[in-house]
Amino acid sequence: MWDVRGGGLVEERIVTLRQAGLRSGLGPFLPAWVSMLSLALLASVSVRVSADVPEAVREVIQQAGNADEDEVRLKLLGELRVHPGVSESLKAELDKLIPELHRYVHTKDLCYFGRQVQQKKDYDFKIPEDSPLYPLTFLYRARMLTWETLESGGIINQRDQRRAYLDKARGFFQEYVKAFPKNRIARMYLGEAIPPEKEYTGLPGAPEWAVYQREGLERLTDVIEWWIDHRQQPDGQYGGGWGDDCEMWRLWVPSLIGFDSPKICKAQARFSEALMNQPHMKLGYTTHMSDVEHTAEDSADALTPMMHIDPDNEEWKKRALRLAELMETLWTGRNERGFTQFKSTYFTATRVDENPRRACDTVYHPRTVQPTLLYWQRTRDARLTGLFSDWMKTWVDAAARSERGKPAGIIPSAIHWPDGGIGGLGKDWWDPRNHGEYTLYLWPSSMSGMVHTLLLTYHVTGEERYLAPIRSMAAIRLRYLQAPPKKDPAAGTEMWCAARLGLLTSALAKYRLLTGDQSFDELLTKERSPYLSLRMGGGRKKLVKALRENAEALRVNFPAYTSEVRWTDRVLRFPVLFNGDYMYPDQPVTSIRTPKTSLLYSTATGDPGDAGYLPLNAVRWLTPPREIAALVTESGTDRFGAELLHFGGAPRAMSAELYLLGKGGYRYELKIKGAGGGSVLKRGTIAVSGPRTRISFELPGGRLCELWVVRE
Fold it and tell me: What is the C-alpha separation between 452 and 470, in angstroms, rounded?
C-alpha cells in the first residue's frame, strides 16, 4: 500500500499561505514564494510502498515522478523495467503503464482519451492502487479531466459538470504533488507559474509600449513555432483533428497577418492546402452533415488566412467563390416573406437537411462564406454585392420586427424557414432549439459575425438601411449602461438583450475609423478597448498597461500553451482555469492571466477589432515578427501613421504593404522620432491604384521611428 505522510497537513498549510498572500496584496509574487515554502514543507513527504520494493526502485520512481518532461519519465520507467531489483509483478504493471504513457506523449490523436473521460470522469490505466506506480497515474488522469473540461461546452458551461471535473482534477494534482513535490507541471496546474526560459529585454530609452509589444510578439511566435516544429505531421495536421486544427490560425493572427514570417506562412499554406484536399472537402465544402458552426469551419478557417497572406493566388480565389456558388444555388432560397435566407442550419456541399426543427438561418451563417466576404471587401465584386446585400435585407427586416416577444431593433439569433419567422421551433424567440447543443445558437450566439457582415454590406453599398440594426442595438445598449436595471431582467426582454450586447464594440469601432462618424462615441467611451482608447485620443496609459499584462501572461507557463495542450482549438485557454469558480472556486489566482492576441494584432495593424470579418488591418509589415515593435497611430482612406522600433543592432531592410488607402497620389516620410521633428531617413511619393500598395525602407537599430503616408 502507499500513502503520503503528513500530506493533508501540508496541503492545509499551503492553502493558508496562498490565502494570506492574496490578502496581503502579494498577488504578482505569489507563485514564487508559495513554491519555495511549499517545497520546503513537502520535502519530507514520501510514498510509502510495500516493504519488498527495494530502495533503488523507489528512487527511480521518485525521479520519474519529479521529472517535468514526459520523455524523461518514459526513459526512466524503461530503465526501471530492466532493473534487477524489479519484481515480476512490478514488471507486469510497467508493461501496462509504459505503453499508456507512450501513447499520451507520442499519439497523433492528442485527444484520444476524450470519450472514456466523458463516460467515467476518469481514465483507467489498469494499475492497482497498492502499486508503487499508482501515484504516477494521477498526473495523467488530472490532465485528461482538465483538458476535457476546457474543450467541452457541455462541461465548462454548466457549473455542476465543471465542478465535478475540476474538483476531481485538482484532487489528482494535489495527490501527485504530495507524492512528487518537485514536479513543476503538476504545480503549474495548481497555480504556481513556471518562469520563462528566454528573456526578451528592452533597450535603453525604448518606450514601454514597444518593449511589451515586442515581448508579446516574440513569445507568441515562440508558441506558434513550437507547434510547427513539434506537432505538425506529414499530412499537415497538428494532432487535434482537422476540425480543431483549422482554428489555430485565429491565435496566430498577429504573427501571421500583422507580419510576414516565411516559416509560419509556409506552415499555414501547407495546412490549408492539405485540408482542402481531404476527401470530404473536394467539392469546396464539407460533405459531412452537421450544423453550420461545425460544417463551415473547415473551409472558412482554411481559406480565410490564405485570402490574407496569399490574395493573388487564383486557386484560393476560386475556392472562395465556390462558396458563393453553393450559397446561391443550393443553400438559400426565397422565404414566404420574399427575402433571401438560408434554408437550414444543417447542410453540406451536396444537400440541405429539410428537418423543420433545423430549418433556420442563423447569425452563425456568415462563417459559411467568411473568405468570400473578405474577397468581396477587397474587390467589390458586383455579383457578390447582389448576393450578400439581398441576404442582409432579410436580417434588417427581422431585426426591425417585434414578434414572439422579441424587442424591435434586436437582431434575432435565428430566422425560421420557409416562413421567415423569428427564432426556431423552440418556445422562446431567443432559443431556437435547432441543434442538440442548444447553447451554440442561444441568443446572442455568434452575433458579432452578423453585425460585422451588416457593416461590411453598408461599407460596400453605402446604403444606410444596413446600419439600422446596429444603430438600434447600440441605442439599447447605451440606455442599459446609463441606467442598469436593479434586478436581473427577464429572458428575452430588451434589457436582457442589452446586458449581452457588449459584443457591439468591435463593429462600432470599425465604423468610426471607416467613416469618422462620432455618433457612437458615448457608447464607445464606456466600452472602448485600450487600443481604441489611443485612437480616440485617450492617451497611451491604458494601452501600455494592457500590453504589459499581455507580455506577463505569455511570459510564464510556456508548456501550458504547447506540450500540455490536448485540444488544438484551445491553445491559449489554460489561464481560464484560475478564474473564479474553476480550479479554485473560492480563491482565483489573479496573477495568471489570459494572453490577448487581439491586442497585438490591433496595435500592429491598426484594426480595432479582429481579422475574421471586415478586417481593417491598414498594414502588413513584410518582415518577421522578431526584434520589432510597430504601433499604428493613424489609418484611413487618406492617411497612415505608425511608430516603429527595431531592437537589433544592424539596420533592418523591410517593407510595408498598405491596404486601406483610396486611389490617388501620396507622399510618405520615415524619420527618427524626436524633439524638433527628428531626422528624416527617407521620403518619397507613391501612387495607389488598387487594394495593396507597398513601401520599402530601412530601419536603424535601436531608434524609434515614425512612418507617415498622406494624400498629396
Answer: 9
Residue range 548-566, pLDDT digits in tens: 999 999 999 999 999 999 9
Element (H, E) at 456: helix 447-461
356 and 497 in a single domain? The answer is yes
Determine, yes or no, domain membership for 667.
yes
Grid cell at residue 485: 436595471
pLDDT, position 24: 32
8 Å CB contact between 157 and 43: no
Q: How far is residue 687's CA from residue 664's CA, in Å, rounded to a whole number?
A: 6
Average pLDDT over residues 315-323: 98
Integer angstrom CA distances of residue 489 from 485, 498, 499:
7, 10, 9
Identify residue 443 by its one-letter amino acid code.
W
Checking DSSP bridges between strand 414-416 and strand 360-362, what pairing results, if any? Answer: antiparallel
- Domain final position from 484, 517, 550: 517
CATH number of the domain within which 701 lies? 2.60.40
The burial of 414, by beta-carbon neighbours within 10 Å (0-12 exposed, 13-18 middle, 19 or more buried), is given as buried
- The three cell numbers of residue 269 are 499554406
Residues 6+ apart with CB under 8 A from 675: none
Number of domains in the chain: 3
The pLDDT value given to residue 12: 40
Residue 574 has, within 13 A of its CA and on its CB side, a CA count of 26
375-381, long-range: CB within 8 Å, 24+ apart, which pairs?
375/307, 375/317, 375/320, 375/321, 376/456, 376/460, 377/456, 377/459, 377/460, 377/614, 377/615, 378/311, 378/691, 379/691, 380/460
Coil, helix or strand at residue 194: coil
The three-point CA angle 139-144-146 to 5° equals 95
SS3 691: coil
Helical pair 208-230 and 262-276, crossing angle rounded to 10 deg: 50
- Indicate if 512 and 606 belong to the same structural domain: no
In the block, residue with C-alpha cell 487618406: 638
Q: According to the model, what pLDDT value does residue 153 have?
A: 86
Each residue of 249-285: pLDDT tens digit? Answer: 999 999 999 999 999 999 999 999 999 999 999 999 9
Q: End of a domain among 517, 537, 563? A: 517
The answer to whether residue 634 scores a pLDDT higher than 90 is: yes
- Give CA–CA dist 206/361, Å, rounded: 51
Question: Using H for helix, E for strand and C for coil, what is the string for 296-339?
Answer: HHHHHHHHHHHHHHCCCCHHHHHHHHHHHHHHHHHHEEECCCCC
Instruction: Look at residue 65 and tell me if it is in a domain.
Output: yes
Q: 440 in a domain, yes or no?
A: yes
For 358, the domain range is 332-517
- Could you give the CA distance from residue 13 to residue 172 in angstroms, rounded to a whole number? 18
pLDDT of residue 64 exceeding 80: yes
180 alpha-carbon distance from chain centroid: 33
> Please, what's the b/e burial string for 259-271 (b: 16 or more CB within 10 A of its CB; e: otherwise)?
bbbeebbebbbeb
**Per the domain annotation, does 556 fall within a domain?**
no
Mean pLDDT of 199-215: 95
Q: Cell 473521460, residue?
A: 117
DSSP-derived 3-state class of residue 443:
coil
- Whether residue 42 contacts residue 181, with contact meaning beta carbons closer than 8 Å, is answered with yes
pLDDT at residue 519 is higher than 60? yes
- Which pLDDT score is estimated for 201? 87
Is residue 574 within 8 A of residue 559, CB to CB? The reply is no
CB burial of 373-391 (b: ≥16 within 10 Å; e: otherwise) equals bbbbbbeebeebeebbbbb
pLDDT at 27 over 90: no
pLDDT band of residue 345 (cuts 50, 70, 90) is: very high
Helix (H) or strand (E) holding 694: strand 693-699
